[in-house]
Fold this sequence. Notes:
Elements: E1 2-6, E2 12-15, H1 20-32, E3 36-40, H2 46-57, E4 61-65, E5 68-72, E6 81-85, H3 90-103, E7 106-110, H4 121-127, E8 132-136, E9 144-148, E10 154-157, H5 163-172, E11 180-184, H6 191-203, E12 208-210, E13 214-217, E14 227-229, H7 234-244, E15 251-254, H8 266-273, E16 277-280, E17 286-289, E18 297-299, H9 307-316, E19 319-324, H10 336-346, E20 350-353, E21 358-362, E22 369-372, H11 377-386, E23 394-397, H12 409-415, E24 419-423
Parallel strand pairs: 2-15, 3-14, 6-7, 10-11, 18-19, 22-23
Antiparallel strand pairs: 1-23, 1-24, 3-5, 4-5, 7-9, 8-9, 11-13, 12-13, 15-17, 16-17, 19-21, 20-21
Helix pairs in contact: 1-2, 1-6, 3-5, 5-6, 9-10, 9-11
Amino acid sequence: MIATVKSSILSGDYFAPPSKSDSHRALICAALANGFSFVSPLAPSEDIRATISALRALDADIQLQEENAVVSGILDKPMDHIRIFCNESGSTLRFLIPIVAAYGIEAIFTGAGKLPQRPLSLYHEQLSCKGVVLDKLESDELPLKITGKLKPGRFELAGNISSQFLTGLLFALPLLQGDSELILTSPLESKPYVDMTIATLACFGIEIAETELGYRVKGNQSYIPCSYKVEGDYSNAAFFAAAGLLSEQGVVLNGLCKNSKQGDREIIKLIAQFGGNVTHMADDSIRIARSTLHGIEIDAAQIPDLVPILAVIGTFAQGRTHIYHAHRLKIKESDRLTAMTQNLQALGADICCDDDSITVNGGKRLHGGVVSAYNDHRIAMSMAVAALFCDGEVLIDGAEAVNKSYPQFFEDYNRLGGCADVRMG
């Protein structure tokens, strides 16, 4: 699909959709519990549907009722031979591999888009010495065949790899017969995502102990069913927070937990550092409105998913914005550093990148042009926000990428005053 987006001003009340990260975690915990759990609200993005499909393959019964999920957990060991299609969801793939291994199930994992090329080397290294065999059936990481049963013990992980690996092990290790240790061999990046996992596990009765070197996980634990309320999504709200910076009336963000473990809640502090007009309102809503912005330095180690929209905010701001420790963006749904650089350059921005950082010299209006979503939801949404700062219209090729995490993005965008016409290309 192609979205033709004209410059406009977004304003009014915005209601954050359910957090995709929180939804993944809650659904998995509910599926591992023996009994009925209720998870709500849910937004049926492609990634969440991939996780639901994977859990159903493991014999969890998940019934969707409007924005709610009723989950009857896995009973004993699921069937011996299963096939799990993860679509393009890295969370689904990396979260489920250790869980399948914990049950000793023979399984084949497949995926679409760039997922088959995304690295799984840590699991090859750490699981293969703990009773699990991982066989790549082709040259890419997927299709991947898993056999054998995971054994407890000591697992060593570099902290600068995706936190999804650590989360996957935190789900699986409590199911094993013995205790385990997770040892971090370097400082942990994206730690807020691990904190989210531990908080969700606690809601379902699983205890994880943080240690000086990493985490200690007791075996023989049981997931306990519960009713779980999914938080509003700071990651997706970030795009509308950025849009508010161009509006005198401003955008009011609603439905976001002020005490959330989500790392992307940092978008509010970062906007304030840019000089944005941020007002915390009595009902926990946050109003973001137009102000004079200046460039800043941003360490992205803990907030990699915010980098695309932060680059766009950098174009709004006078002076230099430098975003560093962003190397892991090279292996997301797209090479996000290159994608954002090429797209914003096509609109007239002064921007460059290397393998670890992106630098924007902002403050001047952009012109219109044609850009690509690069099959990446965060690129598509970021470019829709960039179009607000353009004198001409912007054509976003591949705009359907938003369906991965936020299918109603353009609907919300237009409801707040945007002018996006999305049609089949």
